[in-house]
Amino acid sequence: MSWFKQIKQQWLGLIVATPALVKVLGFFSIWVVCWLPIAIPLAHWLSWHPLQPLQTSQKLYLITSLYLIAPVIISGAIRYSQKFWSSYGVSLTNFTNILISLVIGIALALGGLAIAFLLENALGWVDWEAESWLKLVDISIPILLLALFIGACEELIFRGFIQTELQEDYSPLIATVITSSIFAVSHLVWEWDKTLPEVPGLWLLGVVLTQARWVNGGNLSLAWGLHAGWVWGLTCLDTAQILVYTGKGSEWFTGWGGNPLAGGSGIFCLLLTAVAIQLLPFPDPLPSMPQVMTMVRGLTKDREVG
């Protein structure tokens, strides 16, 4: 078996010495190759062809099948590069901190959206459909679960794997610029004509999410919460058709096609979030769940003794 170990060490050395951009390109290539055997029959089952516009239900099936493969590929990359999940911002050693950062991220995302749309309403650019609020009761939980799934996968891929790999060859700033560019351009794959005006906003979104990882000590949970919160809030508003654009505001501000990321309101929301996560005093590291349980047992024993 010595020859096998020798070959393995040579391969590991080759992987480590490979330039970061080549690793990223290799990741996307393997990802697509692994997905195609699933995507082709799935597209046939959905009666969809590449040149046809995607319906929402078709897009969800395709995205879900694509994103489920990514963690498997990253797991293989971790194994052969001799890294750890924590290298890519995934650490489950302190579930309490993860949960709190996730909730803070969701709250900040929803708060930023609320401020942006309330300002637009005050300026007369949007109106609210009062009757549509009732629809949120039925759709909010399913959309939240979907948003958490999409946020987790995209953060692991972009702010986790790609950002970390690029930082091995580039400064964090340059790596952020490249990662955010890849993140923005990758969204053109599905509906490029609708997504093209969003590219600058998507790029800034990627930068803010990378900032969230830095602020959170390298963990992805805050970025995950922000990403999920934005997807949740915007999808709920769109699905329930709560917002009605009056046409009084320029699309340069409200967003082209009613999409905030394609206009000034979305940029304002992202910049506001960037300031918030940089200035808000995040709590000191909280005790882990085992530590919490130990403290609870200690208090219980003290009461019994008393």
From TrEMBL:
Coiled coil: none annotated. It comes from the Bacteria. The chain crosses the membrane at residues 12-40, 60-78, 98-119, 139-158, 170-190, 261-280. GO terms for biological process: CAAX-box protein maturation; proteolysis. GO terms for molecular function: endopeptidase activity; metallopeptidase activity. It holds the Pfam family Rce1-like. Keywords: Hydrolase, Membrane, Metalloprotease, Protease, Transmembrane, Transmembrane helix. InterPro entries: Rce1/LyrA-like_dom. Residues 141-231 form the CAAX prenyl protease 2/Lysostaphin resistance protein A-like domain. PANTHER family: CAAX AMINO TERMINAL PROTEASE, SLL0360 PROTEIN. This is CPBP family intramembrane metalloprotease domain-containing protein. It comes from Merismopedia glauca CCAP 1448/3.
